[in-house]
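Hi P.,

Sorry for the delay on this. The queue was packed all week, but I finally got your sequence through. Input first:
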Amino acid sequence: MQNYLSPIEKVLTSYSLVTAFAVVGLTLWISYTLAERVTRGRIHGSAIAILIGLLLAYFGGVFTGGKQGLADVPMLSGLGLMGGAMLRDLAIVATAFGVRMSELRQGGWMGILSLFIGIFVSFAVGGMVAYAFGYRDAVSITTIGGGAATYIVGPVTGAGIGASTEIIALSVAAGLVKAVLVMTMTPLLAKHIGLDSPRAAMIFGGLMGTNSGVMAGLAATDPKLVPYGAMTATFYTGLGCLLGPSVVFFIAKMILPS
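Then the structure:
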C-alpha cells in the first residue's frame, strides 16, 4: 500500500503550494456546508473555517513537534507560504479596491476618532489584564496590551521595546483570542449594534482593529461591508504599530516607573 501511495505523496510534496490551495478549498467547502446545514446560517462559513484552521494548526504542531503547524508536514509545507505575510497583506490590500470613495468620505471624523479610541482602549484593557496576572513592568504590560489590539501590533511593539519572547508569545495569543471572538460574535450582534452600512462598518473596523476578525465577521454579516471595515482595520494596525512602542509605552512608563 505504501508503494502505491509514494508517487502520490511525491507529487503532493513537489507541488506543495497547489496542495495547500486544495486543502484550503476542501476546508472551506466543509465549513460552508456546516454553516448551512448545522448552524442554518447563524455562524458564517468563514468563521468556522478559521476555527478549523486553528485546530488543524494545533494538532499539526503536536504531532510533528514543529513550530509551524501543518506547514511542518512536507506535503503541506505550501501552507507556510499561502498563509504567510506576503499573501495575507496582498489579500488585505485587495479588499480596498471594493471601496467607493463617496461612501468612504461619509465616515468623516468619526472614522478617524474610532481608530484612536479602539487602539487606546485595547491597550488599556490588555494592560489591565496583564497587571491582574502579575505583570508590573511597562515593557510586558505594553506588549500584552499591543496583543489585545491585534496579534500583529503586539509582536511589533514588543520587538521595539525589548520584550522577551515569552511576553511576545502571550501578546500573539491575546490577539488570536480577540480575532476569534470578533469573527464569531459579529454576525450575532450586528443587528443590535446597527452594523448595516458602510459608515458603520468603517467605525466598527476602527474600533475592533483585527483584520482577520473584522473581515470574517463582516463577511458573515454582509459581504458588501467587508472592504470598508478592512480599510479602517488596516489603518488601525499601522497606527497601533506606531503608537505602541512610542506614545503608549511612554504613558505606561509614567504610570509604572519601575
